[in-house]
């Protein structure tokens, strides 16, 4: 144990391979057992653990009212900066708790999950660090993990990999509200959608989600707090990003991305952070990367407290799982539902909204709320809903959202409107003739 504690105390600015990374995470947990929880969510193709360190006042389990946040790095094995700065973020958080009042309040009111590497096999396969493409980008089966998730717009034919399945199960089992995945090869904060069709505005070169305003705010929060991302300078003279942000589809279209999956099926707002022009830069640059990203990493976590949260209960005060709770005017193609504790979390910018709570089979409840900016108070606005006509005996669980191209279904539905009109006209004519 003493060896583990000493390992936690000394984190150098260097690249940590699998054994060193595991040793460090175990050392942190041994040194801070009440503040951290270390667990593996699964294994890679080659059998390496996919470690997640959870930090917070209640690290081992979800606590009602406390939102869940996650950072994931190194899903492309040769994009390495995120892997290392997440280790330094862990180091900063545990050493600041109880000393820094802001970090202390952040950890007391947020459950933070950190996965330094989603693709440990790819990292170990990258024998010669390179600023550009290497085979370590992919997992051991040669699959790009950021093209491997179910897609809301197209049928993704890629075989789901062990690393992808582990993350999908992880998302399913936690109430994640906000997330970011860390990449390299550019310097920009990219937001959903990565894929699109005419329903979301792809014909205009931009794939807009119902929460586009929130995503723009999230991306700007990171870029504006980064040392240089906000300047919008690209990695070459051909490409610039105004304010250091971009809509994913506007940058380049991709199918099966993790951030779209989080948003559609996980009810979790995720953005993609490209942190370095060089994918695998020399180790002597890591300290600067940490300094450049430190403030942005913390400020982004605070955004998990945007908007409104609460519980939906029955007449006896029991939680109602799978109730639909959404802001009026921004419905999701996969409706956002309450968790097992009847909780909902909606990320919304300050303003006036009508929140619609619906228990299938019963009349909806509408409540108008004035949402302030509560990120500095580390708590979203609280708004509960109680359904007096609903009892525990008549509640039933609703099936999870299907893994089909949901926006493709919308396209077909809109295309079907015209034939339906023609059918109605034909029926009217036949009725007149019959009469």
Automatic annotation (TrEMBL):
The keyword ATP-binding does not apply. Coiled coil: none annotated. Pfam families: CarboxypepD_reg (PF13620), Peptidase_M14 (PF00246). Belongs to the peptidase M14 family. SMART domains: Zn_pept (SM00631). The keyword Glycoprotein applies. It comes from the Eukaryota. One of its GO terms (biological process) is protein processing. The active site is at 274 (proton donor/acceptor). GO terms for cellular component: extracellular space. InterPro entries: CarboxyPept-like_regulatory (IPR008969), CARBOXYPEPT_ZN_1 (IPR057246), CPM_N (IPR033842), Peptidase_M14 (IPR000834), Peptidase_M14_domain (IPR050753). Keywords: Carboxypeptidase, Glycoprotein, Hydrolase, Protease. The lineage of its organism: Eukaryota, Metazoa, Chordata, Craniata, Vertebrata. GO terms for molecular function: metallocarboxypeptidase activity; zinc ion binding. This is CBPM Carboxypeptidase.
């Amino acid at each position: 144990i003493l060896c583990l504690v000493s390992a936690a105390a000394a984190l150098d600015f260097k690249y940590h391979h699998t054994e060193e990374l595991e040793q460090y995470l175990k050392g942190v947990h041994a040194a801070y057992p009440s503040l951290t929880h270390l667990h593996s969510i699964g294994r890679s193709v080659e059998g390496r653990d996919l470690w997640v360190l959870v930090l917070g006042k209640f690290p081992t389990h979800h606590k009602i009212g406390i939102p869940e946040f996650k950072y994931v790095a190194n899903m492309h094995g040769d994009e390495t900066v995120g892997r290392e700065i997440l280790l330094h973020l862990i180091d900063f958080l545990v050493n600041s708790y109880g000393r820094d009042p802001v970090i202390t309040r952040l950890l007391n009111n947020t459950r933070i999950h950190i996965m330094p590497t989603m693709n440990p096999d790819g990292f170990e396969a990258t024998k010669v660090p390179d600023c550009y493409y290497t085979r370590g980008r992919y997992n051991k089966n040669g699959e790009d993990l950021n093209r491997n998730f179910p897609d809301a717009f197209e049928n993704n034919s890629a075989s789901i990999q062990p690393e992808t399945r582990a993350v999908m199960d992880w998302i399913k089992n936690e109430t994640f509200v906000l997330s970011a995945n860390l990449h390299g090869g550019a310097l920009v904060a990219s937001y959903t959608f990565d894929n699109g069709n005419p329903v979301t505005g792809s014909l205009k070169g931009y794939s807009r989600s119902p929460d586009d305003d929130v995503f723009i705010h999230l991306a700007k929060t990171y870029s504006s707090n980064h040392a240089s991302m906000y300047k919008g300078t690209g990695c070459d003279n051909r490409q610039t990003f105004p304010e250091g942000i971009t809509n994913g589809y506007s940058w380049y279209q991709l199918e099966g991305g993790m951030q779209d999956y989080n948003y559609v099926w996980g009810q979790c707002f995720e953005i993609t952070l490209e942190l370095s022009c060089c994918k695998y830069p020399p180790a002597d640059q890591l300290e600067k990367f940490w300094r450049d990203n430190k403030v942005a990493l913390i400020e982004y976590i605070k955004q998990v407290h945007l908007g409104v949260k609460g519980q939906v209960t029955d007449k006896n005060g029991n939680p109602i799982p799978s109730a639909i709770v959404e802001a009026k005017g921004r419905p999701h193609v996969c409706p956002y539902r309450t968790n097992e504790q009847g909780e909902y979390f909606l990320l919304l910018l300050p303003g006036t909204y009508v929140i619609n709570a619906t228990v299938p089979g019963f009349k909806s409840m509408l409540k108008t709320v004035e949402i302030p900016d509560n990120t500095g108070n580390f708590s979203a606005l609280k708004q509960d809903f109680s359904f007096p006509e609903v009892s525990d005996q008549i509640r039933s669980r609703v099936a999870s959202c299907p893994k089909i191209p949901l926006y493709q279904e919308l396209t077909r539905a809109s295309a079907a409107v015209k034939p339906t009109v023609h059918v109605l006209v034909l029926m009217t004519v036949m009725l007149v003739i019959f009469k």
